C-alpha cells in the first residue's frame, strides 16, 4: 500500500531538519527519518505544529510512508554516508522512484550514483542546495541535475520551497542530466570564495591605505550595497564590520584570528578547472589566500621581511581611494563570474549537459550565498545567447569594466606600492589584460618547449607543426 507523504527527508541534522520544515510549512506531508531516532523525535516534538510530519523509525517505515512514485531527499554528510544511505534504501524502492541527494556531493560521485541507479530504474537527482541553514528553512536556491523526466514530478514540490527571485520566479530549475546540478553548485561555491576574497581585499585596503576604522568601512559597504554591488555578501560584510565584541568592546574583526577555514568545494572547483583547462584564477587565489592565512608558522617566520613605508592619506584622498576600490571590486567581481561561467560552459560541453548559463544565473538571484542584484544582468546577457563566449564579450559589461579600469589599475598599483596583498584584484586585472592582449608571451613558451623537448610549435603564417634544429644550423622542419 502506498503511503501519504509527498516527500521524505532522511538525515535530520541542521540542513535536513530545516528542509523538512520548509516542505511542511508549504503544505506538503513530509516523512522524516534519521539514523539516530532522537533527531526525528526532536523535530516532531519541537516543530510538529508547523505542518504534517510522518516520523519513521526505520528505513522500511520511511519508505512505506511515501506515496508513489516515492521521492526521498537524502541530507546526510557527503561521501561515504551518502553511499551507505543509498545502499540501505535502494532494495526497498521500485522503478520510477526518485532519490534526491541534497548534500554537497562531488559531481563525479553523483555521476557514478546516477549511472548505477539508472540500471535499476531509479531516478537519482543530485541537487545542489545553497543558502545554509537559513536558506533551507526559508527558501534555498536549488540546482537539481539527474534525468529530466524526474523533474516533472519533483519540480513542482521544489518550486514550493525554493527562494523566489525579485520577479517571483522560484530559484530552481532542471540544470542538466546526471552530475550537472552538483557541478553548478560546486562552481557557485567557488565563486562564493572569490567574492569573499575580493570583499576581504577591499576591506584590507580601506583599512591599511585609506586608514578607515571597521565602523567607517561598514558604512562604506552599506553605501555600496545601495548600488551595483547590491548583494547578500556585501550586506552581511557591513554587519560583521559594524559588530563589536561584547567582552572587549573592540571591533569584532580585531579579536578574531586571521586564519580562514575551508570545507573543500572551492578547492574542488579549482581542481576541476585545472582538469578542464579553464583559468579560474580568481577562485584559485581565494583558495590559496585561505591556505596562506592558515600557515601560522610560515607567516611568523616572515613577519620581519622588509616592506614599503606607507604614506597616510588625507580625508579627501581616502574618500577618493574608497571610490576607486569600489570600481576595482566591481570589475574584479565581474571577472570572477566570467571565469565561473566559463567553467560551467566547459563542464557542460565536456559532459554533454546542455546547461543554459542564463538559467543558472537566474537560479542564483535569491536564496543562495552569492545572490546579488547583478545576477539579473548576467541572466539578461546570456538570454538567447547561451553561446556567448565570455561575460566580458557582453557589450554592457565590457563598457562598465572599461569605465572602471583606470581606477582598478590604480588600486592594484597602490596595493603593490604600499605592500597590501590584493591577489584577487591583481589576478582579475591580469586575466582582463591577458584576454585583451594582441600577443601573449606564449609565443616564447612555444619556443622554449621546442628547444628543450622538441615539442614543436605553430606559426602565425602557415598551418602545421614545426620544429627548429636548435643549436645546430637552426633550420626549421615541419613535424
Ligand atoms: P552533516 O553534514 O553534519 O551530517 C549529519 C547527518 O548525517 C546526520 O543526520 C547523521 O546522522 C547523518 N549520517 C552520518 Br554523519 N553518517 C551516516 C550514515 N552512515 N548513515 C546514515 N546517516 C548518516 O549535516 P548538515 O550540516 O545538515 O548537512 C547535510 C548535507 O548538506 C551535507 O552534505 C552538507 O555538505 C550539505 N550542506 C550543508 C550546508 C550547511 O550550511 N550546513 C549547506 C549546504 C549543503 P546521525 O544523526 O545519526 O549522526
From TrEMBL:
PROSITE patterns: 6PGD. SMART domains: 6PGD (SM01350). Pfam families: 6PGD (PF00393), NAD_binding_2 (PF03446). One of its GO terms (molecular function) is phosphogluconate dehydrogenase (decarboxylating) activity. Pathway: Carbohydrate degradation; pentose phosphate pathway; D-ribulose 5-phosphate from D-glucose 6-phosphate (oxidative stage): step 3/3. Catalyzes the oxidative decarboxylation of 6-phosphogluconate to ribulose 5-phosphate and CO(2), with concomitant reduction of NADP to NADPH. Belongs to the 6-phosphogluconate dehydrogenase family. This is 6-phosphogluconate dehydrogenase, decarboxylating. It comes from Streptomyces pyxinae.
